[in-house]
Give the backbone structure.
Amino acid sequence: MKLKVAIFDLTDCEGCELEFINLREKLTSIAEQTEIANWRLGSTSNDPGPFDVTFIEGTPITAEDIEIVKQARAVSRIVVSLGSCADLGGVQSWLGEAAWKKGIKLVYGEKYKTDSRAPKPLSYYIDVDVHLPGCPINQNELADFLGALLAGRMPTEVRYPVCLECKARENECLLLAGEPCLGPITKGGCEAVCPSRGLRCWGCFGALRGGNTKAMQRVLKEKFGEERAEQLLAIFYSQQDEYKALYPKEKK
Amino acid sequence: MSESVLTHFVCKIEGHGNLKLNYKSGKAKLVVDEGERLFEQLVLGRPYEDAPFITARICGICPTAHVLASLNALENAFGVEVTPNIINLRQILRAGQLIQSHALHLFFLALPDYMNVANAIQLHHENPEVYRMAIAMKKLGDRLTEVIGGRAVHPITPVVGGFTSVPADEQLRELRRELEAHMHMALATVELFAGFKYPALKRETEYLMVKDERIISNQGLDTPLENYAYAFKESVREGSQTKYGTRDGHGFMVGALARLALDKQSLHPKALYALEKIWDKKLPTYNSFHNNVAQSIEIVNLIEESIENIDAYLAEKNRVARVPFRVSESSGVGAVEAPRGTLYHAVKTDEKGNITLYDIVTPTVQNLVNLEEDADLLMTEHAKVSEEKLYREIEMLVRAYDPCITCSVH
């Protein structure tokens, strides 16, 4: 029997969904072994479920978004957080509730009404079975996951940092070169694609479990100052326990 | 809400929007239903280098356009003069952005309307030749972005002053061969889209674009880029997370069709051939459905332009990947002709180069009112057709504009 797949997108850039289309030839062969039953970016005909696998992309921020993810959870065997917005809260989540409310007023004016709240990762609202982080996700990791799924196997979680993949590609160390590279404490799986092209790691796969974030914070503070250290760590880690242990109070 | 108002969710567009059609009064509204993003707030207080990285994340379909607009604003602010070889590579990046976005829109979002299938994957069985074209054209755009930018979504290498790394010459020569090999298919794409029967629609409107750092229109507008805030007005509408742009209370249009109407003289020989011999229409046609054909002609032009840029880059002996610059307390406006039209980024920085103000105006914000005005005309002129058919036509109109709701909210 074909695997029944759903793809939902919430508030985000839809770049990770696009990586599905970017699988191109691979997408065609995957589509033959699966039934994409619900995907509103790709099609007009959509099915309410149940689903074997549901990919959720983006952050739930409105009451309707939260309702969608709860319903999706209820009708899905496996839920996957696709990309850093769903998995970590995304770049927009470091603002926090107070700054979020203030920002809404600044952009839309005093009269504007909304039921949105500061972005939180999917796991804040529902249980997530498989995490595929990245801003955007890594195509090969996605293809590997789909392959494993078709073989009836669950993927194993990445337990090494970006540095490992970066060293394997024999790149020069950007942290030693004076850049605030977050490779040492960031979960791998990205194939070190940024440092391989000369860009420091911004941490988009999230904090590696068991990584020494405290030591990294000290290095960043020494080299770039307190304020910048917090900005650098906040961009993708702000909703993670590792970050909250370093900065327990929410930013005003 | 009266019973004559029906709300439909629009599928196969980028982001979440609902069409509200009032069949009695003949009025259409496109209501955006997307969570707020607050990107203009997210960059405040951060160093300038964070702006292109963060604003790329506004949109997964046009991240490169956001990066290029952000770099343009920052480089204008700091007075950075990049070298011609950096400009060559950036133009190839922009071409990759437009080709991949146009291919995605034309084949995966718009084409199913005209070939009567629910989605492009069905074409794989029903029309394998067109499906092969869809995949190949999308891949060409991705390849340009991957070789220059490092990957297809959210480019890695472009930074203020140039690039963190540039491709090897051999990679560019390979890219040149791929571009040449796809020309035939690009012309076939024009033939395909020029051959569809589009709903009848004719409504004169104002077309805008940015050329040589000036905002120009077919109704005499010609003003420096820095005046963008005076060229049109953005207003907030209740219950919608996007803003709506107008000029003197009316809609105006940006994007491929506007560029074709305003800047035909920039077309390269094969693109001109595609326009005059394959499509054979007198410009401007004032039918917004033709945006589809205009996008296909742009793909041909961008292939020719990219080949020229590769040749110029490879011929340059003294290449520089990144130029040095100094940050200062300053302000700057940047713009790029993105897939859907002119994208503006504007920035203010303090003396350390930290961002104190950031403003973004996306093409979709500029197009929405014009889209509604077109839809109103369809509702009046086609009042006798069934509600279902009319709805389908308006949904096709929405898709012809290729709106990016995600961008419009930012």
